Amino acid sequence: MTLSLRITQAFDDFTLDADITAPDGLTVLFGRSGSGKSTLINAVAGLMRPDSGRIAIGDRVLFDSARGINVPVHKRRLGYVFQDSRLFPHLTVAQNLRFGQWFAPRGQIRAPLEPVAEMLGLTHLLTRRPATLSGGENSRVALGRALLAGPELILADEPLAALDEARKADILPYFERLRDEAGVPILYVSHSPAEVARLATTVVALDAGRVIRIGQAAEVLSDPAVTPLGARATGAMLEATVVAHHADGLSELDAKGVRLLLPRVPRDIGVTLRVHVESQDVMLATQRPEGISALNILPAEIREIRMGAGPGALVQLCAGRNLILSRVTRRSVQALGLEPGKQVWAVLKAVSVAKENAAG
């Protein structure tokens, strides 16, 4: 089910002007605070009426300023997951989930509670109340309630923002399962590159109310021109298959012909993962380094160099069939004679890739 979104909305400090087509899967609206992410998702939900434009899910039009169409919130057939879970404290988990079923369209067969509870790991929590749950468990209940409403689209506005890193790690696999198994497209707001790399099938990069890039996660995240959160937040997403687990605690992965060694990844051999590599962790050398501790030394070719406003620069590399970003200084670019087409070595310490950045 494709979401088509074309709206404009004027604010005091900028004008939101977006034209987006989001296919099936999980589409992430990605950018810094104030770029228009939440405004877009609230326009889809019907919580904000744009100045002009059109919003449709498949052939069903939710908003069209030219035709005077503005479908009420309760008739839009959407599930909304907020930053806070907004569960009913006096109801059990099962009762909160069943509340979502009441909003399933009339005449539509309601999704059964049990498979949803099992998919989200809630079966053993059904008799408990929200006050006795962790933040991650409450978020999973909110996600299940949205799914049981029988939506055509799920909206998630930074649903993990209020959680600490441990709780985020707990709930991310459930968003992956929802993306892969539920058959409901998801529009997801985030400012976390690691979340984007792990979850997104499509990324919409926003800056000051405008769309600067739309595409697959691997393409957008490795583009040096896409820095919605600044150079410090940049990184690339690699797809890699687990090929071996070694006795010294390292896992060996094949990323489209490139060998990577990482701290043990708890996945079976043959499983394909997404690996998020932060640009600040990638060093460059013009000759193959010898006598260093880093285990990942990858031959690469420079594709593009983007100089920053300050002392930094982003270098886009092609290693095998992977696009990788390296953040270095302008001085290093000059001293090493870096330029597009130059053959270099990308150096990545095995331990620099956090455990939660190799999953999916």
Automatic annotation (TrEMBL):
Domain Mop: 291-357
A Gene Ontology molecular function term of the record: ATP binding
Keyword list, A-Z: ATP-binding, Cell inner membrane, Cell membrane, Membrane, Molybdenum, Nucleotide-binding, Translocase, Transport
Domain ABC transporter: 2-233
UniProt xrefs under InterPro entries: AAA+_ATPase, ABC_transporter-like_ATP-bd, Mo/tungstate-bd_C_term_dom, ModC_ABC_ATP-bd, Molybdenum_import_ModC, Mop_domain, P-loop_NTPase, Transp-assoc_OB_typ1
NCBIfam families: modC_ABC
Name used for this protein in its record: Molybdenum ABC transporter ATP-binding protein
Originating species: Mesobacterium hydrothermale
